[in-house]
TrEMBL record:
Active site: 168, 245, 341
Chain's role: Cell wall formation.
Gene name of the record: murB
Record Pfam families: FAD_binding_4, MurB_C
GO MF terms, alphabetically ordered: FAD binding; UDP-N-acetylmuramate dehydrogenase activity
Keyword NADP listed: yes
Source species: Candidatus Accumulibacter adjunctus
EC number(s) from the headed UniProt entry: 1.3.1.98
Family to which the UniProt record says this protein belongs: Belongs to the MurB family.
Pathway(s) it belongs to: Cell wall biogenesis; peptidoglycan biosynthesis
Protein known as: UDP-N-acetylenolpyruvoylglucosamine reductase
Cited HAMAP family: MurB
Gene Ontology biological-process entries: cell division; cell wall organization; peptidoglycan biosynthetic process; regulation of cell shape
Domain FAD-binding PCMH-type intervals: 23-195
Length: 345
């Protein structure tokens, strides 16, 4: 990239510690602050050994310095695209805050995203791992997205089928596009059904609504309850650096799930449409003895065993050492494999 002048939106030798919620040390050779598709087209002519797309930095573990081009997405904008008898259709730029999008739709009277309130990160990052919480996934409200193919210099539109959504998965992860920066999400369109029905089956959410004596909550009340639950369980990255839920809730076979339910009747789990069973990773970690336990300068949060926190001055290698120790402990006790949610960069 030194063989030609850098565009004015590209900076060299950038400190990344303040750009990720785990606050791990590391520098990027180059960072592009991308606020338009036109800028992405300019980057197509640049050659770099590596590219990576960064949203809010809430799902990244820095292993050290990054020797390539980091694309910091800042494409703004949100709008009502259309409305028909069945739904509202909204679109938001990839750089928009996901949580602020949720609050905006609710303020406009368009329910449907309330269970996904307070999930950190940007709109553009949401479809990469098909974010989800409290019985709802992005895929349930997804209409389409636009992505820029950096190598070919063209804008693509992907519908739900093309995104190949699965649990915490999408075509962006399956093809490695989120790692090589070859395809960059620029906007996401959502379908919010007018035949709205509350999703309140998850235990923590149901308990919060019961505490508030809300037998028939509306969407705003559900969002408020979700925010309250998440605030109690998850530390503020500004005071306790973390990456949110560090491990995925594992999906196990019906056979293994049945055996675990017999051996541990209190195990929180949910039967999936395909017969597999989703198990609460936080419960497994707590039972394996890691809730509130530290390994050097990192630890599993004392209020939520699923959250890995930086106690101060930690490095990426320490984060991954703790992750492996937790995985080993859960494997030995329950014969269940835990998969990290964040990307190791």
């Amino acid at each position: 990239m030194r063989t030609q002048p850098l565009p004015d939106f590209v900076s060299a030798d950038v400190d990344l510690a303040g750009r990720t919620t785990l606050a791990l040390p590391g520098r990027a050779a180059y960072v592009a602050e991308v606020s338009s598709c036109r800028q992405l087209a300019q980057l197509a002519s640049l050659r770099s050994a590596r590219r990576f797309v960064l949203g809010g930095g809430s799902n990244v573990v820095l292993s050290g310095d990054f020797d390539g081009l980091l694309l910091q997405m800042a494409i703004a904008g949100r709008e009502l695209l259309a409305e028909d008898a069945d739904a509202w259709y909204v679109r938001a730029g990839a750089g928009e805050s996901w949580h602020q999008l949720v609050l905006w739709t609710l303020a406009c009277g368009w329910p449907g995203l309330e269970n996904l309130a307070l999930i950190p990160g940007t709109v553009g990052a949401a479809p990469i791992q098909n974010i989800g919480a409290y019985g709802l996934e992005l895929a349930d409200r997804f209409q389409s997205l636009e992505a820029f193919d950096v190598e070919r210099g063209r804008l693509l539109q992907l519908d739900r089928a093309a995104c190949r959504f699965a649990y915490r998965d999408s075509v962006f992860k399956q093809q490695g596009w989120h790692l090589d920066g070859s395809h960059v999400v620029t906007s996401v369109s959502l379908r919010l059904p007018k035949d709205w029905r509350p999703l309140t089956g998850y235990a923590d959410l149901a308990a919060e609504l019961d505490h508030r004596r809300l037998a028939r909550p509306d969407a705003l009340q559900i969002a408020d309850a979700v925010i309250a639950v998440r605030n109690r369980k998850l530390p503020d990255p500004a005071t306790v650096p973390n990456a949110g839920s560090f491990f995925q809730n594992p999906l196990v076979s019906a056979e293994l799930g049945g055996r675990l339910r017999r051996d541990f009747p209190e195990l929180p789990c949910h039967v999936q449409p395909d017969g597999r069973i989703k198990i609460a990773a936080g419960w497994l970690i707590e039972q394996a003895g890691w809730k509130g336990r530290d390994l050097g300068r990192v630890g599993m949060y004392e209020k939520q065993a699923l959250v890995l926190v930086n106690r101060g001055g930690a490095r990426g290698s320490e984060v991954m050492a703790l992750a492996r120790a937790v995985q080993d402990a859960v494997r030995q006790r329950f014969a269940v494999e835990l998969s990290p949610e964040p990307v190791l960069l």
